[in-house]
Amino acid sequence: MHFLELPLVFFTVLAQCAVGGYLMVIAHLNSIPDGKQRRLVAVKTIFFVLAFMTIGFASSTMHLGSPLRAFNSLNRVGGSGLSNEILTGSIFFALTGCYWFTEVCHKSKQRFRSLLRYLAAIAGIIFMAAMVKVYLIETVPLWDNIFTPLDFIFTVMTAGVLFGSLLLNVFGGSNTNANKRMAAFGLLLIGLHFIVIIIRTISFSSIATSIHQATTNLQAYMPMIFIQCVLMLLAGWLWMRAINSEKKQVTMLLSLAFVAIFVAEIFGRGTFYGMHFTVGLL
């Protein structure tokens, strides 16, 4: 059991959590009637979204070797999936940061702040699409399939939604009914993700090239897949417990659930990178 490309593992999972958390937060902000409370919730929650993106970009820089290489990769925007990913991620980070800053200063008009809020959401979705595109490589049979976008989307919609739900509860932006709706949505997606992992594992066992067999990789990474599945089930159980608990216990249970789902995604992404092999002789 070992991890390959650990900086990329953390970058992709942190970025997907950040985008999913941001989408969950802004979807819920309009349901907060008091304008002052809405602004405070936005300031506090989005700070942590930006923190996740900052750590994620720092991790990706470790993979590239230096920040200058990240800037150099922008020379191929439009023709390189990596360049598009860095550009769209930077745009999402910049727009989210600008929106957060306007809420902190509270000097811009509400219409302008709302525009920035939704532009950042659109940029986040485009960023996620660009990230998926990077890994749809024809010469890597275990990546170039429907399971790659499904895995990435499920991370956004499970770990990201749970991240957003946790932030909203910590900073007083949620209530019992909202928690139940978010939990129902998240638990459904965790269940679907669990099924997809099983189907993907069965499907990959039949893939082989002239010198590589997916079954060899699968055998090496089955412990990590097993740990991922166990942690996902644990996260789902904790999330379900949270919505049926007293208010003072909700935050603690959601925190534990998020840690479980985050670590599960780390193991899942580690498996994803470990399953890499090409159709050639390498």
Automatic annotation (TrEMBL):
Database matches in Pfam families: DmsC
Coiled-coil ranges (or none): none
CC annotations in GO: dimethyl sulfoxide reductase complex; plasma membrane
Transmembrane domains' residue ranges: 6-29, 41-62, 82-102, 114-132, 152-171, 183-208, 220-240, 252-272
This protein's UniProt keywords: Membrane, Transmembrane, Transmembrane helix
Any one of the GO BP annotations: anaerobic electron transport chain
InterPro entries, sorted: DmsC
MF terms in GO: dimethyl sulfoxide reductase activity
Name this polypeptide is given: Putative anaerobic dimethyl sulfoxide reductase, chain C
